[in-house]
Amino acid sequence: MQDSLMQGEKVLTGARLVLADQVMLGSVRLRDGRIVDIDAGRMRLPGAIDLEGDHLLPGLVELHTDNHERHAMPRPGVQQPTWSAVQAHDAEIAAAGITTVFDAIGIGDPYRRGFRGRDQSEMLAVLDALDEAGVLRADHRLHLRCELPADNALELFEPYAGHPRLGLMSLMDHTPGQRQWSDLVRARLYFTSKKGWSGQQFDQEIARPHGPGSERGRRAEANRGAFVALARALGVALASHDDTTAAHVDEAHALGASICEFPTTLEAARRAADLGLLTLGGAPNLLRGHSHAGNVPVAALVEAGVLDALSSDYVPATLLAAAWTLARCSLAQPADAARLPQAIAKVSRAPARAVGLHDRGEIAPGLRADLVRVREVAGQPVVLGVWRGGRRVA
After folding, report:
1. pTM, whole model, 2 decimals?
2. Rounded distance between C-alpha atoms, residue 317 and residue 325, angstroms
């Protein structure tokens, strides 16, 4: 590493660099939004930023978060202006160390009552305006969650087709009794509490036919074919969602899916591993020790060796915390330096590669200068600084 700073350069020094295969005390030089080089040891250059022995990680990559939805509708039936919702979401994402985020947008609601059954495309104009002004903290991309039984799903998809932010599509069915909600006791609790359904309404929905020959089944099959064709035409990565059986995974693989997100059983996760799909688990599930819907604990996927990546799902701060948990020898010990690179790869390099982003996800010369400063306090990671493209954003 050269012994002086060129104009526009930054040097972060005195950091525990979490590299692809090791943790090394060293320094990183940044220029024009990229990592120029890496060196062992501490640099004593004028203007170098001393990280005082804190960890320096690659910026986290989030493939599936409903966090914007939480800001857009913080209470049932209470919708906030898109401008304030996007800014609040962006700030929270960056503060969690996430530098690349795929905002999950629900496309369709089978019952046309919820937020996901409405046109949310105003978000595109807001993101573009904030980006053009240079004030977005994270790199925002879009993950469109295509609700197959919804009769308005294709209509709601139209504003996003061909938009440069679109990078991921997933196929899903959230009707009670299906996939994630196969456990009817938990499904009843969820739909009658969060969704506000009556017990009678839930019983009527369960009694409705959902099979291939039913009206809803035919609609779901037609939408599935249309969305798969769109993903291929647009060159967008495709994910399955809440796979419950090996047959679900086989179907997704045959359709061209490369990501199996939130499999609900160990059977489905193992089949995804056999077929080479990236298996994405929920960070909140891992930290809590169980699924809120009664599905397979992510810890079981870890133990079986079939967890490839993590998503914060609905709580951004859980992404880093879950990676830290993976790196521990036990809950009582601090992050294990020998295991930390493998754990951090599940929230950076692995998700980035799964959607074709090869310019980020690790600390290496030539890659984007997306970096996170982390200090461990009482065994827990605390984000102290975030750089995206070499610019401090949090």
Report:
1. 0.90
2. 13
- Residue pair 151/223 in contact (Cβ under 8 Å)? The answer is no
Average pLDDT over residues 40-61: 93
Q: Is residue 137 part of a domain?
A: yes
CATH number, domain with residue 334: 3.20.20.140
Q: Would 364 be classed as within a structural domain?
A: no
Cα 281 from Cα 278, distance rounded (Å): 10
Name the one residue in this structure whose structure tokens are 């053009």: 132
User: Is residue 374 a contact partner of residue 344, using CB atoms and an 8 Å limit?
Assistant: no
Domain assignment of residue 189, yes or no: no
Q: Between helices 82-95 and 122-132, what is the axis angle to 10°?
A: 60
Would you say residue 236 has pLDDT above 90? yes
Domain extent for 69: 59-175+210-359
Pairing of strands 259-261, 278-282: parallel
Closest residue by Cα to residue 238 from 163, 312, 172: 172
- Higher confidence at residue 33 or residue 45? 33
The Cα–Cα gap between 285 and 208 comes to 31
- Please name which of 393, 392, 394, 391 lies closest in space to residue 383, comparing C-alpha atoms: 394
Q: What is the pLDDT of residue 57?
A: 98
Cβ neighbours for 275, distance < 8 A, ≥ 6 positions apart: 249, 250, 253
Structure confidence by residue, pLDDT tens digits, 106-149: 999 877 667 787 899 999 999 999 999 999 999 999 999 999 98
Number of domains in the chain: 1
How many residues appear in the chain? 394
Task: Give the integer Cα–Cα distance in Å for 268 and 119.
Answer: 33
Cα–Cα dist 47/154, whole Å: 53
CA-nearest of 326, 329, 294 to 310 is 326
Whether residue 180 lies inside any domain: the answer is no
Residue 167 pLDDT greater than 60, yes or no: yes
Tens digits of residue pLDDT in 87-113 = 999 999 999 999 999 999 999 987 766
Q: Which of 60, 131, 122, 129 is nearest to 92 (CA)?
A: 60
